[in-house]
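User: Can you predict the 3D structure for this chain?
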Amino acid sequence: MASAFETAWTCFEVTLQDRVAHIRLNRPEAFNAMNRAFWNELPAIVDDISDNARARVIVISAAGRHFSAGMDLQNFDGVGGGSGPVRADIAGEASRAHLESLQDTFSCLDRARMPVIVAVQGACVGGGVDLTSACDIRYASADAFFCIQEINIGMTADAGTFPRLCRLIPQGWVRELAYTGRRLSAGQAQEIGLVNTVLPDPETLLAHALSTAREIASKSPLAVAGSKVMINYAREHDTETALEYLRVWQTGMFPSADMAETFKARQDGREPDFPDLRPVRRGM
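Assistant: Here is the predicted structure, written as structure tokens:
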């Protein structure tokens, strides 16, 4: 099976350099709107990189003026259709299962074994907010803005915005953005903690994201993976439960060999050399 870097994707360009996987939304003519192919391709790419430990960090960016216009409205063609009348409860069950698959498109970023950095320029609306809120680190250019667009087309955001945003920014801001559909500027997003840094332009933005990714890639992959696991776990649990889980993790996966290599490299005046994570076996 071809790797994520060997496949010709419809919506993405995927490259690998310096142990950093760069996933680039690549439909600038459509403002990187999320068409049907998008929802299948993104988890396939991320899961392949994560499961096979093909990189130590993932960076997501976008071609063109805007990061993403969100859900391609053509996806709604035929919604509610079918070959004949269907009971509402049966249709509802199928809709729930379909929505779960859409949510998983962004949850794959959360569960990836390596950090995911996103670089946002221009518009980041609707599904773009779902995507960015699932990433570990968010950077934006000065012209970027975020918008929970769903309210402006008469629906509730449902692919992951609310469960994640409520843990990232004050709830009052989530409510204002969700109820009004207003734009949140890059500067405001930094002030309330949604983005880490605002850069002056898209070129500087991407350079900064890739530089941070290379810095992370130089660290122990096992220690970085452990940090992501523990941060995610602590986000979902109380302090004592998280501390207990950390004790269990450290007991089984304390990177003593990587610590020894760090100290030896310092003595030798060189950069440490760490092994990559091993691929994960799925199924039989």
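The mean pLDDT is 94. The longest strand covers residues 12-17.
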